């Protein structure tokens, strides 16, 4: 019998997918000094590999865990140097799926906190919903604790809306991570306009 095509993204069980199992620590792209991946001027790191397989994914090639090049010390040093420019507000992690590449993402976030404290902010996109992350593996929670802003949830094509700030579909939320962790509930980013 022919399999019915899947209509939406995949939905993992808690802890079903791990970075240890999937990540090859590859980077699809690094884009310094851009204005589109969050608030202010930002440096964006696109890690490789994502299992959600959202129909209409904006970065299909980066679903492959071996797309691009390995993350290197040289790239990390470049990111840290770029973030040192006074007009850069912070780093953005995208993919692919940052939470299935926690080895790379935790490493760069920790270095930013060590060198810049909270004078630079860190945003990340993820296909996981906030409530799913709360039930996930310790490395995912460690990464979450290093972030300022999380844009959560799969891209859902039926809810696609190009007028939204920094999101592709209306189910996705821009979440203030420290405030949400402190209150135990999702707190939306205070600068949200739409
Ligand atoms: S979560 Fe993002 S990168 Fe992954 S398949 Fe969905 S849209 Fe693509």
TrEMBL record:
EC number: 1.97.1.-
Annotated Gene3D superfamilies: Aldolase class I
Enzyme class: oxidoreductase
Keyword Iron-sulfur assigned: yes
TM helices/strands, residue ranges: none
Keywords on record: 4Fe-4S, Iron, Iron-sulfur, Metal-binding, Oxidoreductase, S-adenosyl-L-methionine
Named cofactor requirement(s): [4Fe-4S] cluster
Origin superkingdom: Bacteria
Free-text function comment from the UniProt entry: Activation of anaerobic ribonucleoside-triphosphate reductase under anaerobic conditions by generation of an organic free radical, using S-adenosylmethionine and reduced flavodoxin as cosubstrates to produce 5'-deoxy-adenosine.
The protein's name: Anaerobic ribonucleoside-triphosphate reductase-activating protein
The species this protein was found in: Lacticaseibacillus pabuli
Gene: nrdG
């Amino acid at each position: 019998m022919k399999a019915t095509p899947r209509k939406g993204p995949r939905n993992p069980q808690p802890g079903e997918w791990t970075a240890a199992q999937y990540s090859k620590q590859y980077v699809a792209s690094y884009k310094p000094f851009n204005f589109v991946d969050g608030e202010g001027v930002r440096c964006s790191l696109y890690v490789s590999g994502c299992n959600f397989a959202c129909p209409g994914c904006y970065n299909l090639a980066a679903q492959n865990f071996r797309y691009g090049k390995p993350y290197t010390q040289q790239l990390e040093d470049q990111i840290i140097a770029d973030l040192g420019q006074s007009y850069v507000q912070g780093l953005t992690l995208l993919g692919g799926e940052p939470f299935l590449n926690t080895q790379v993402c935790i490493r760069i976030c920790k270095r930013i906190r060590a060198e810049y404290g909270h004078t630079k902010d860190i945003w990340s996109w993820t296909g996981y919903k906030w409530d799913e992350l709360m039930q996930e593996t310790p490395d995912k929670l460690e990464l979450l604790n290093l972030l300022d802003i999380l844009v959560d949830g799969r891209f859902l094509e039926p809810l696609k809306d190009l007028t939204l700030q920094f999101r592709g579909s209306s189910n996705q939320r821009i979440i203030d991570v420290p405030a949400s962790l402190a209150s135990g509930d999702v707190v939306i980013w205070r600068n949200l306009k739409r």
